[in-house]
Model the fold of this input.
Amino acid sequence: MTSQARSAAARTASPATSAVTGTASAAAQRREQAVRAAVEQGLAGPDVPIVALLDTTGIRTSAAALRDAFAAVTDAPVLHAFAVKACPLVPVLRLLHAEGLGAEVASPGELALATAAGVPPADTVLDSPAKTPAELREALALGIAVNADNPQELSRLDALVGSARPSSPVGLRVNPQLGAGSIEALSTATATSKFGVALLDEGAREWVVRAYAERPWLTRAHTHSGSQGVALPLMAQGVRAVYELAEEINAAAGRRQVDTLDIGGGLPVNFASDEETPTYAAYAQLLKDEVPGLFDGRYALVTEFGRSLLAKHGTVLARVEYAKTSGGRPIAVTHAGVQIAARTVYAPASWPLRIEAYDAKGRPKTGPAVAQDIAGPACFAGDLLAENRPLPLLDQGDYAGVLDTGAYYFAHHYSYNSLARPGIYGFTGDAEGVRFATVRTPQPISDLVAEAGGGHADALLADGA
Ligand SMILES: *Cc1c(COP(=O)(O)O)cnc(C)c1O
Done:
């Protein structure tokens, strides 16, 4: 749809949907202006054939929507810890922190990014199924909240904590074993998931209640029931399971030992249009309906949303290097492929992405829709972002816009064919025009060589000769 068609649709929409449609068309308009400006300002062009853009306004809007959704249903303190995994970029973490969010980290690297962004330990939560003793020691020394994954990790924590009370809040991750969503690889609450203590296994629940009884410092309970592909009712069931567990632990303890519930992230994202659905408000309301006790103020809350905060706000702009046909099929060979969209390339049925056609000046292309392949630059046949996609026919020098790539895409570079990481720019705009801020500079080739052992070129020759 062109932007004119989109705003026409917005004008004719019913009052109930026009607010949502209006937000969506505003986002589409900002994107369109940014693409045009990126080409005009030379962020993309013949010598810079791929660039990634982040809609700063959109990110702020999503962060505010998250805060407001929970503030509308509870007075309890809520830490919204952004799942760094979803968009591991320091300026993004700092922007979100400025919007009142913390960070959920799952590796020493992610913790370092959150620290570099200025997220304080009190707003940081460490999850991960494979924390080393050194990571646990550091987290406890810094006062970062830790969610233990399993009995062995809890034993390690016992040894580190000793007889003192840790300065970090410590919780236990449980798996309510609810079953899978539509994407098996992202379903964390299956019967045999690798995450957390499987609550329905024989004797597990009793073990968990005892584990809390024996450790007065265990004050949190955590679950994260899945990401993209898990429907809201299943997510709410997972939250209810951890809530009921906390109630049981506290009843057994005769005091409010568990004082904080960490309900994870996982709000699914709509990859089919600009509409942001489901909303945080809908999820918060569903939780209030399904787990009323969650919000009555007895528990502080932690959330860990990732994809839903960033996905809609990222766009990759890739130049069409060549347009050709093969077996009668038009193919646009672009510079966006597996290196910025590994999931889509390897699992296209689970991860379809919207693509927009722009001309050489970055203006939306018009013309009849022609089924064509949008191919990437990598040297394997499956490196396609879309197959047989009806779009205005892309020509040499045009651009393909790969939408909804703000989370788990261009910030998750896959170094196939030693393709360099593209530059990332945040954009804001007003009547004066579009302004870009550098989030990440394009990776220089010398960097690639260094990463590839360039400093050890002789290492495998006899005697280094
Ligand atoms: C990945 C992950 C998240 C974020 O999931 P999204 O689907 O990006 O919201 C939150 N918590 C944990 C423990 C995770 O592993």
